[in-house]
Amino acid sequence: MPSRRINIVKNLDWVTIGIYLILVIMGWFSIYGAVYNFEEAPFWDISFRYGKQLVWIGCAIVIGVVLLMLDSRLYNVLSYAFYFAMLFLLLLTIFVAPEIKGSRSWLVLGPVSIQPAEFAKTATCLALAKFMSESGYTFSRMRQWALSICIFLMPMVLIILQKETGSALVYFCLLLVLYREGMNGIVLFLGFLLVVIFIVSIRFGAVCVIPELPEESYGLLIVMIITLIVQCGFLLVFLHDKKSVLIILGTSAFAFLLGYIVYRAFGYPVPFTYIGYALIAFSLAFCVIMRIKERLRGYLLIGLFGVACIGFSGMADKAFDSLMPHQQTRIKVTLGMENDPKKAGYNVNQSMIAIGSGGLTGKGFLNGTQTKLKYVPEQDTDFIFCTVGEEHGFIGATLVLGLFLFLLIRLIMMAERQRSLFSRIYGYCVASIFFFHLFVNIGMVVGLTPVIGIPLPFFSYGGSSLWGFTILLFIFLRLDASRMEYFGQ
Fold first, then answer.
1. How far, in Å, CA of 489 to CA of 479, rounded?
2. Do 176 and 133 belong together in one domain?
3. Is residue 214 located within the same domain as residue 180?
């Protein structure tokens, strides 16, 4: 129901558009610095990547203008159609795309290659915003909550089948949107806990962290201890049962201490993992008894939680073994399980050398030795940030990160001022995806996260990436510009 027409140009968020243009320009200069090899070639020469990127930038600006000219209600009305069209395109890509670097994720259309996964992010955000903004949506209804999860799980599965695991992981950030809209924070905590359990199970699966103790799976033992502590935390926070916490913690401490004393006094190889199993079983039995006694379902859920954690830890090794060899190696290098500076760890090692060599002010534009001598693979795509660090140093890298932080804060502010629930949810989707890309890309460049191959927004070379982020952002800019125009949107 339209209330009144307003001047869209006047109501555009020109600050965000300005940040976008600055980042795109800085990104092009970074690509130019990464690719330039002192040949006498003009910067618009499309035989070089910096020339092609100029074409992608020009097209991206045209796309952005077109998106701003469209009626904002179209994005709501056509969201499901766009979503299912992208699902079909993702499915088609699995069968018709050529294999490039081990994945089938690029559709070759003559001289141009398109990666549908980059555009599927926008379609998924629109569909999720549409579904969650419909009348009657609530997290208390399991069916609606499950369907909202399925909306971003379906493109994830199709992208994984394309063997693009990194691009698929991006969709997990949409859980932040569900949290903002009312999902219980315990879901995010459990997700974080599963990541911790996976890392501990892989990192310490067969490592003796206490040399004088008998050799066994200390990864599983650590998981058991974490599980018992978290169970006690749940009992204290949700059920306010201090007595049960003291019983479980006291029994656990006594059992482990007794096992250690027996080993030290008699030299008997005490199987501490079996003690852990017994304590998990004890906590389950204790919670079942309390469930019957107090008639509170929470006790049973907390007891079963312990069993689930141990089961997930047991599955972690199988899940890790199912990964491709290069993915396993990347995770091992990141966790410090392997030191492979000449193969799997080469990219990260050279990237950190490049960033570190930049110092405070950098070596200057086009003066990066690591960049010019091509020591860093993928230095104009996934590892583009090392070019910023080497040529412009700590100051330049901080400036880039500051601009991205400003953009994220601006997106959150814009999302909060929306009068339409659809626009607000979509805005948080945009902010979450930008945050994930920024965090993981910078993290893998400096060795904090595994190398999973996702681009840095507006910096990494590629038309699909630039267009995908432009579409994602400019749709939100159009929705924001019309926030006072259509109250019934």
1. 10
2. yes
3. no
149-177: pLDDT as tens digits: 999 999 999 999 998 888 899 999 999 99
Mean pLDDT: which of 116-125, 143-152, 212-221, 315-324 is highest? Answer: 116-125
Instruction: Name residues whose C-beta falls within 8 Å of residue 263's C-beta, 6 or more positions apart in sequence.
Output: 213, 214, 269, 270
Do 314 and 250 reside in the same domain of the chain? yes
Residues 112 and 216 in one domain: no
- Sequence-distant (6+) residues with CB within 8 A of 425 are 128, 129, 132, 133, 177, 181
Sign, CA torsion 459/460/463/469: negative
Range(s) of the domain holding residue 80: 8-185+396-481
Domains identified in the chain, total number: 2
- CA 436 to CA 118: how far, in whole Å? 14
Among residues 379, 381, 363, 369, the alpha carbon closest in space to that of 455 is found at 381
Question: Residue 141: helix, strand or coil by DSSP?
Answer: coil
Q: Is residue 1 part of a domain?
A: no
Instruction: Tell me the CA distances in angstroms from 273 to 19, 201, 212, 224, one per residue in order.
Output: 54, 13, 16, 8
Averaged pLDDT for residues 469-481: 96
**Please, what is the average pLDDT of the chain?**
86
CA atoms within 13 A on the CB side of 344: 20
Helix (H, G, I), strand (E, B) or coil at 100: strand
CA 22 – CA 362 distance, rounded (Å): 20
- Which H or E run contains 420? none
Q: How many other CB atoms are found less than 10 A from the CB of residue 141?
A: 11
Indicate if 57 and 145 belong to the same structural domain.
yes
3-state secondary structure (DSSP) of residue 103: strand
Q: Give first-to-last CA distance, the chain, whole Å.
A: 7
Last residue of a domain, one of 323, 342, 357: 323
Residue 477 tokens read as 């800019």
